[in-house]
Amino acid sequence: MKTVMLEENKRLRKEQWRRFLAFQGLSVEAYDSYAKKALSRPWEELKASQKRGRLLSEQFLHCYGSHPYHEGKSYPVAWRSLFMPTEIIYAMGLMPFTLEMFAAQVSMMGRAVKCLEEAEENGFAPDLCSFVKAAAGAMLLDILPSPDVILTSTHLCDPSAKLAEFASAKYNRPEFVLDVPYGAWSRQEGEGGASDLEEAIDYVAEQLVGMAAFISEVTGAKLELEKLIEAVRNSNEAGRWLARGNELAYYSDRPLLRGSKDMDHAANLMQTWGARELVDIFRSRYQEIEAAAAVECEPSTRPRIVWAHLRPYYRNSLLDYIEERADIVGSIVNYCYWDELDAGDPFRAVARRTVLNPAYTPLEQRVELYARVIRPGDGIIAFYPKSCRHFHCAGRMETEKFRTYGLPMLVIDGDCVDDRGDDFMVVKTRIDRFLKELCTASPEGVRKS
Ligand code: SF4
Asked: In the chain, is it the N or the C terminus that has fewer CB atoms within a 10 Å radius of its CB?
């Protein structure tokens, strides 16, 4: 029965691939020749951001069983929500597919509204997170690769477990929900101290053991502990390069990377933790930052910005406008908030990084955590989707709290995927005023607009 379902999914994914390409006005043949050319460039010649793009593209093609250089090759496909850890998925030989990333992708292609309208016409609430709503619309259009298993975590994104329930019913595939306790940092530093945190980690680690057994049961894939240890080692090595790059770039007196592009690594939520290629991606990123630091240059006098949450993925001029006037020197989504993980205890290692996500902790605590690493005088620009219960709802209180640490904050009420309410001129006025404030309030008093 298991094998029959997996085989049926493979067949369906071929049809869904055709449908997905037709959705963009492309044929399989035209896309194949484009992809062959795009993927023929040697990996070593690529920049870090291109390597990242290459890895994600290849994984995407594998999810549909349509990699032009690997005909006939297919992986069991694990749908995951944005914050579900991926080391176990790699260790078991599955291919991750992140619904919210797909939503960002259709937004970049200028096709998100079609998915959003499909969802809205079928009863999904207009004020639902547009990442989730676009993914639901894509399911209804049947352009996603059928899942073999559906994995969702409860933290941060309120609607993702509901979306998984919908997906499970639509594709008749079982789902696993990882329950992540709220506020692990507070547990670590609050009344119960370290033992409370350890308890939270144990709780999640036990569920991850159960998740591996669940994946085995529904896909037949087996977990070899050695492979999981290797995946955690990969994450450790990649994390070290990420942290070194962040440190060098952020504490420099001039921009060493293009902040608007760098935030696309989105390290806190990406699906590549555990993959060997990630080590090379973050090593290359570090080397590029190091090379930029070696070039002699005057210190920048422009306002420094730390970005919070993600960016709008549809065509727009917001980030270009800001970068013409300020330096985006870091992004919270790339913050490496965890220490080296214990690869010898891999389930607990993955659980530890999962529960310690600082965004999933009470507001006062998370602001205090970020304030430990953000330089006073830097401005925070948060691009919060209006439909995001977690981030947008807290925006005003966060702004007040960050200001008590000498960190001015601007919350842009936006949407990452849905451009229907985009009004750049309104946002522009607020950005101008904020950058002006940063210039006058700069602790060094040297930054000019
Ligand atoms: S906007 Fe909020 S709910 Fe939606 S994917 Fe981002 S964090 Fe999750």
From this structure: N
Residue 36 falls inside a structural domain: yes
Three-state SS for 427?
Answer: helix
The predicted-structure confidence for 122-133, as pLDDT tens digits, reads as follows: 999 999 999 999
Residue type, 186: S
User: Is there a domain that residue 209 lies in?
Assistant: yes
CA 257 / ligand 1 centre spacing (Å)? 26
Ligand 1 pocket test target in 83, 156, 180, 366 with most atoms within 8 Å of CB: 156
Instruction: Give me the phi and psi of 78, to 5 degrees please.
Output: -110, 110
Distance in Å, CA 159 to ligand 1 centroid:
8
The strand ranges marked E within 130-262 are 149-153, 175-178
Tens digits of per-residue pLDDT, 211-222?
999 999 999 999
- Alpha helices (H) in 251-332, listed in sequence order: 259-262, 277-294, 318-323
Report the pLDDT value the prediction gives residue 440, as an integer from 0 to 100.
85
CB 386 within 8 A of CB 392: yes
Question: Greater confidence, 190 or 419?
Answer: 419
| Tokens 């993925």, located at residue | 313
| Ligand 1 site-directed mutation target among 157, 313, 386, 392, most atoms within 8 Å of CB | 157
Share of the chain above pLDDT 90, in %: 91
Spacing, Cα 260 to ligand 1 middle (Å): 19
Task: List pocket residues of ligand 1, CB cut-off 6 Å.
Answer: 82, 100, 129, 131-132, 156-158, 385, 388, 390-391
Separation CA 249–CA 42 (nearest Å): 27
Pocket test for ligand 1, best of 84, 100, 162 (most atoms within 8 A of CB): 100
In a domain, 212, yes or no: yes
Instruction: Give the total number of structural domains in the chain.
Output: 1
Res. 445: pLDDT tops 50? no
- Residues of the domain holding 189: 2-222
CATH of the domain at 99: 3.40.50.11890
Q: Is residue 122 part of a domain?
A: yes
Distance 419 CA to ligand 1 centre (A): 16
Q: Which one, of 334, 429, 317, 322, lies nearest residue 379 by Cα?
A: 322
Would you say 410 and 384 are in contact if contact means Cβ atoms under 8 Å apart?
no
